[in-house]
Amino acid sequence: MQDLFEKIKKNRGPLGTHAKESHGYFTFPKLEGDISNKMIFRGKEKLVWSLNNYLGLANHPEVRKADADSSSNYGMALPMGARMMSGNSNYHEKLENEIAQFMQKEDCLLCNFGYQAMVSSIDALVDRHDVIVYDSESHACIIDGLRLHMGKRFVYPHNNIENLEKQLERATKLVNESGGCILVITEGVFGMSGDQGKLKEIVDLKSKFNFRLFVDDAHGFGTMGATGAGTGEAQGVQSGIDIYFGTFAKSMASIGGFIASTENVIEYLRYNMRSQIFAKALPMPIVMGALKRLELLRTQPQLKNNLWEIVYALQNGLRQAGFDIGKTESPVTPVYLNGTIPEATNLIFDLRETYDIFCSMVVYPVVPKGIIMLRLIPTAVHTIDDVNYTIECFKKIKVNLENGKYNVNKIVSI
Ligand SMILES: Cc1ncc(COP(=O)(O)O)c(C=O)c1O
Question: Whose CA is nearest to atom 3 of ligand 1?
Fold first, then answer.
């Protein structure tokens, strides 16, 4: 037997192992100042490519005013309690109605956190007789929802529709015996690689198999499709998505999320999602702020147009400069380089300190050993100058990497 605290002291977890060397710089960095393309990191201005402020709403004057006015009028306390007990309001219902209308779904349920919404809705929807079939690159919130599932789960390799079909055959056999149901879960836009879930192909499989489709479109809501209604709209299969999840934390630059579906499903979730029944409702300023953000998202298409102008300039420019940006089909822009973890940290340090560029770095185990992924998130508030400057700097750091400049066999000390 061992003491829990002693065990934790020895085993820090995969990320915590590097906490001492990385805290405050590579992990838990503090970006200060107004949220925009340029922010302050450790007292110096940096060009920032790591915020999911896709439409630039974080610092939009109308958004700031709505946030400030509603905070001043209502404070953070209202409404008190869970929606079901004492925490409902006309504004919560108004926001739900407006989202449902925008998403072309019958109804909508607000959720306190996007992550929790996915975990808890999966938990509420299925029981031990049901089978979940899911994409292997699903976000942690889907994986954690699966952990609560008492029935079978079958995974298919990322976007491999042939294999999905095999899993659906297996699942169908099983539910024919158990009397259960099949739920397929995937993402609209995959947040690391930026490629889209093959929603059209999955929806087409409904002619062969009996299942319901749940799509986590955290990165697609507000950025994809003609009106910004997401990846289903972009692929022309919005009505084939049975349950749609979106977050307020990315294109809406806030916090919270929603699930949109049929009246039947939403009423069921309203009365069965434990994370909403047993937790306090979204505070009024978040709801009022989300109403304003949704209004801008719907009525100001130039925000999305600005975003995509930057996306195309950045992605085309990187490709033309010989960079591997993988299979992205969305604003998410990964740049794949070859190198070790110490090289990655030295490279990021150089990028931040010499070139004043702040972006996120992803290494093993999220990507295979020997790959360094720099992840850039373009937004509507970036400029073409930002794009050109970044590509020029990236060319230099690539040459440095290839010449072994970052191969100093020790992680930079910060
Ligand atoms: C695909 C996906 N789903 C869900 C979430 C969780 O959303 P939230 O930040 O609103 O909790 C994220 C956020 O990173 C995400 O990328």
Answer: 218
CA nearest ligand 1 atom 12, residue: 218
Ligand 1 atom at shortest distance from the alpha carbon of 249: 10
Residue 399 neighbours by CB distance under 10 Å: 10
Q: Whose CA is nearest to atom 5 of ligand 1?
A: 115
* pLDDT, tens only, 131-166: 999 999 999 999 999 999 999 999 999 999 999 999
High-pLDDT (> 70) share of the chain, %: 99
Query: Which neighbouring-strand residues pair with 260?
Result: 108, 244
Q: Is the domain of 274 the same as that of 322?
A: no
Other Cβ atoms within 10 Å of 114 Cβ, number: 24
The answer to whether residues 76 and 98 belong to one domain is yes
Pocket of ligand 1 (CB under 6 A): 113-115, 118, 139, 141, 187, 191, 216, 218-219, 247, 249, 257
334: domain CATH number is 3.90.1150.10
Q: Which of 299, 326, 343 is the last residue of a domain?
A: 299
